[in-house]
Write a structure and sequence with these properties.
The structure is a single chain. The protein is of the alpha/beta class and 479 residues long. The chain contains 13 helices and 18 strands. It has a 16-stranded mixed beta sheet, with helices on both faces. α10 links the parallel β12 and β13. α3 packs parallel to α4 and α9 packs parallel to α10. The longest helix has 55 residues. The termini are far apart.
Length: 479
C-alpha cells in the first residue's frame, strides 16, 4: 500500500464523518428505488391519460363515421300502409265507374280509434262545430262527431297537443279554447309573423302515437268534411316517417314559445331524410318507394330539411312525360304583401318542362266566389304556351256546384297536389309566393320505383276523374 493510500485510509478511519458517509451510501439504493417508483407512477398516469384521450378520439371518429353513413345510407322501412283519402262535397257526383276513395272523415275517425298514447295536430284554424260558423245543417254532423271523439279520447287518457295560428276575429279558435279549458289538450299558438315578418301556420297534419299521420288540404273545419273538396294521405304503421314528421311538429311546438329561430338548430330538429337522401318505404305490399317530407317557410327548415318550394321544383324538373297539378290558387306573384311582386319560380319550371322537354302539362285551378279576378290572366298566360315549340299545356278551372243553401267559404276544390309519371306530391299550400316564403306548410313526396304505381296511380286517377268531369271548363274555349 502506498503511503498516500495509508494516509487516506487512516483519515477515513479516524474521521468521525465516516459514519455519515456510510449512512448516505446505505440510503442511496433506497432513494434510487423511490425515484423509480415515482417515475413509474408518473408513467402509468401518463399512459392512462393517453389511453383515455385515444378512446375519446376513436369514439369521435366512430360517431363521425356513423353520421356520415346515415347521410349516405338511405333509411328503410317496410310494411307501411298509405291510404289516399278525400272529401267530396254534398250533392257532388261523378260518372259511373269513377274512382272512389275513403273519406277524410273516416280516416280521421280511424286515427282517433287507434290512438293509444298521444295525438299531435298542427292546424290553421278550428271550426269543427256548426255553432262555430252559426250554421244549422245536417252536414255539420261529421265535424261535430270528430270534435266529440277528440274529447272522448282525451278523457280516456290520450295526450293531445295542438299548435295553431293565433286566434283572430276571423278565426277565434273556439274549439281549441274549449279543449284547453277542459284540460283535454295542450294548445299553443304559433305567430309566424313575429318570427319571419309575415305569414301564418297553414299546415294540416295529424300525428298519432309516433306511428301514424295524416297530411293534406283539409282544415279542422266541419266544412272540410262535407262542403269542400279535399284530398290527403294517411300513413299507418310507419315509425320512420312519423318520427320525421314529429321533427316538423316539434319546430312548430317549440317556436310557438320561443322568441327567435335557433341558430344553429339543435340536433333534435335535424333530419337525414330529404330530396337527396329519401327514405325507402315499402308500403301496401308493393315495391319500395323513395319518400321524404318537405317544409316551409325556409327559415323553419333545419339543416338537411328540403324546403317545400325546392321539393315542388324538383318534382317538376324530374318529369319526363307529364305533370298534372291541382291547386286552389295559382299565382306567379305574392298575394298578401303590402306591395305585390312578380314571382315566376313555379311558373317558369312548368314552362321549361313543356317548352324544353315536351312534358305534357295540365293545371287545374279552382273557380269559386272568392277567386281573384287576375288569376285567370296568369292561367291564360301559361296556357298560351300550348303548341309553341310543340309544347303541350292545358289549363282548366274546376267549379263545385252550389249547395241547397248558402254556407260561407264552401263549394270549392281545395286540393293541393301534383302527379307525374313517377312521383306523387301532396301539399298543404296554395301555389303563390307567400305560401312558400312565409307560411307554414308541409309537402309529402312519394317517388315510386321499380315500376310500382300505387299511390301515384291513385292520385293520377283522381286528377283525371276531376279533369274530365262536368265540373271543369277550359281557360280558353278549346284546349
Amino acid at each position: 500500500m502506498a503511503r498516500g493510500d495509508s494516509y487516506m485510509l487512516m483519515r477515513e478511519e479516524t474521521n468521525p464523518d465516516v459514519f455519515v458517509v456510510q449512512s448516505k451510501q446505505a440510503r442511496a439504493p433506497i432513494a434510487s428505488m423511490e425515484r423509480t417508483r415515482k417515475l413509474l407512477i408518473a408513467f402509468v398516469i401518463f399512459m392512462g391519460i393517453l389511453i383515455i384521450f385515444l378512446v375519446v378520439v376513436l369514439e369521435h371518429i366512430i360517431k363521425s363515421s356513423n353520421a356520415e353513413t346515415e347521410q349516405t345510407t338511405e333509411p328503410f322501412s317496410s310494411n307501411c300502409t298509405i291510404t289516399l283519402v278525400e272529401s267530396i262535397p254534398e250533392n257532388v257526383t261523378f260518372s259511373a265507374g269513377s274512382v272512389q276513395n275513403p273519406s277524410i272523415y273516416d280516416g280521421w275517425m280511424n286515427l282517433l280509434d287507434i290512438a293509444e298514447e298521444r295525438i299531435d295536430i298542427a292546424s290553421f284554424y278550428w271550426t269543427l262545430q256548426g255553432s262555430d260558423t252559426k250554421t244549422k245543417d245536417y252536414s255539420t254532423e261529421e265535424g261535430e262527431t270528430v270534435f266529440k271523439k277528440l274529447q272522448d279520447v282525451a278523457k280516456a287518457g290520450v295526450k293531445i297537443r295542438i299548435v295553431q295560428t293565433p286566434p283572430t276575429d276571423a278565426f277565434p279558435q273556439i274549439d281549441t279554447n274549449i279543449l284547453s279549458k277542459e284540460g283535454l289538450a295542450d294548445v299553443r299558438s304559433l305567430n309566424i309573423t313575429r318570427l319571419v315578418g309575415s305569414g301564418i301556420l297553414h299546415t294540416k297534419m295529424w300525428l298519432v302515437d309516433g306511428k301514424h299521420f295524416y297530411v293534406g288540404s283539409a282544415n279542422q273545419d266541419w266544412r272540410a268534411l262535407t262542403q269542400v273538396q279535399e284530398l290527403g294521405l294517411i300513413t299507418y304503421n310507419c315509425s320512420l316517417m312519423a318520427n320525421d314528421m314529429s321533427k316538423i311538429f316539434d319546430v312548430y311546438w317549440d317556436l310557438a314559445q320561443d322568441t327567435k329561430i335557433p341558430n344553429p338548430w339543435p340536433k333534435k330538429y335535424q333530419t337525414t331524410i330529404n330530396a337527396d337522401s329519401p327514405a325507402q318505404i315499402k308500403f301496401n305490399g308493393s315495391n319500395a318507394a323513395s319518400v321524404y317530407l318537405s317544409s316551409s317557410p325556409p327559415k323553419f327548415c333545419p339543416p338537411d330539411r328540403t324546403d317545400d318550394l325546392s321539393a315542388i321544383i324538383r318534382v317538376i324538373d324530374s318529369a319526363t312525360k307529364f305533370v298534372f297539378v291541382s291547386v286552389m290558387d295559382y299565382f306567379p306573384t305574392t298575394l298578401y304583401t303590402r306591395q305585390r311582386t312578380y314571382w315566376p319560380v313555379i311558373d317558369d319550371a312548368l314552362r321549361r318542362a313543356a317548352f324544353d322537354r315536351k312534358v305534357h302539362v295540365r293545371l287545374m285551378a279552382s273557380l269559386w266566389n272568392h277567386t281573384r279576378s287576375d288569376m285567370k290572366n296568369y292561367l291564360r298566360s301559361l296556357a298560351a304556351l300550348n303548341y309553341a315549340n310543340d309544347a303541350y299545356v292545358q289549363v282548366r278551372l274546376y267549379s263545385v256546384p252550389p249547395y241547397t243553401k248558402e254556407i260561407p267559404f264552401t263549394r270549392v276544390n281545395h286540393n293541393k297536389y301534383m302527379v307525374t309519371e313517377s312521383v306523387a306530391y301532396i301539399g298543404t299550400s296554395n301555389w303563390s309566393a307567400d305560401y312558400f316564403l312565409y307560411t307554414g306548410g308541409i309537402g309529402y313526396v312519394i317517388n315510386e320505383t321499380e315500376n310500382s304505381s300505387n299511390v301515384r296511380a291513385q292520385l293520377q286517377a283522381v286528377f283525371e276523374r276531376n279533369w274530365y268531369s262536368n265540373f271543369t271548363t277550359p281557360i280558353y274555349d278549346k284546349d
